[in-house]
Amino acid sequence: MSPWFEQLRFGDGLVRLSEPHVHEILRSNVWWLRRTDRDVVVDAGLGVVALREAVPALFARDPLVVLSHAHLDHVGGAYEFRERAGHPADAAALAAGVPASLDGPELARLLGTEDVGADFPDVMIDALPEPGYDPAAYRVGAVTLTHPVEDGDRIDLGGRTLTVLHLPGHTPGSVALLEEHTGALYSGDVVYDGYLVDDLPESDVAAYRRSLEFLCGLDVSVVHPGHGRSLDRARLRDVARAYLRRTDEDGA
User: Fold this and answer.
1) How far apart are the C-alpha atoms of 196 and 177, rounded to whole Å?
2) Which of 99, 176, 218, 225 fits 165 for a cystine, CB–CB 3.0-4.6 Å?
3) What are the backbone dihedrals phi and psi of residue 91, each rounded to the nearest 5 degrees, phi first?
4) 195: Cβ–Cβ under 8 A, 6 or more apart, which residues?
5) Which class does domain 6-246 fall in?
6) Whole-angstrom Cα distance, residue 10 to residue 65?
């Protein structure tokens, strides 16, 4: 496997891929679920290095990729998959080609976050994937969904299923996947162990609050998020409740 990616095996056919040379703001998780009938991949990384070249085994069973939402650090490699699932509310953004740059100030401008652009480094990677690589040439191309999914849809993996949960707020089409057999939730950027971002132009705080209120009552065993380490149910509730307190207009 290419040194650009780190691989962590969780057992039960679950593998996490991450990109250690990507700045933490964009360093996302690619979750690879190897199941009986087919494989499913949740999100597709930044796309600096082609997944097919770096991790060829990932494509051995022609997996379905499920895109948790339409941001560059989650859809950069989506074009490599024959079948791509995601929520229709993010389909137009994907089809237009999501805003993308490895230049920190330029990325802040494209995302509409110039006020926090000072937190972005000049370049969003700390190493080149190969000699001569030009970060200025980085782009994320247009992606068309082959499998639009809605809340409650089920993805059959052969004796095990993933249920789609539409949880808008971070983006209009943000989704999570619940594997009911194990109680595992693949949450994308709906929730992770950190400050939850709700100030992008496409974000909706009221919708985000409803999504997190729902998650507070969801019976899960573990959360595998779009960024950082996995969370247990107690930590999920802590993060969600902290967000709800922070965004409570009444200060309750």
Assistant:
1) 18
2) 176
3) -65, -40
4) none
5) alpha beta
6) 19
- Domain ranges across the chain: 6-246
Reported as a single tens digit per residue, the pLDDT across 51-60 is 999 999 999 9
**H helices of 84-229, where?**
91-96, 104-111, 205-216
Structure tokens at 234: 């107690």
Q: Which of 6, 37, 42, 40 is nearest to 21 (CA)?
A: 6
- Kindly report, residue by residue over 212-248, the tens digit of the pLDDT: 999 999 999 999 999 999 999 999 999 999 999 999 9
Spatial separation of the C-alpha atoms in residues 171 and 99, rounded to whole Å: 14
Residue 195 is classified by DSSP as: P
**What's the pLDDT at 206?**
97
Residue 212 CB contacts under 8 Å (≥ 6 apart), including other chains: 169, 190, 191, 196, 240, 243, 244
Q: Where are the beta strands (DSSP E) in 43-149?
A: 64-66, 83-86, 147-148
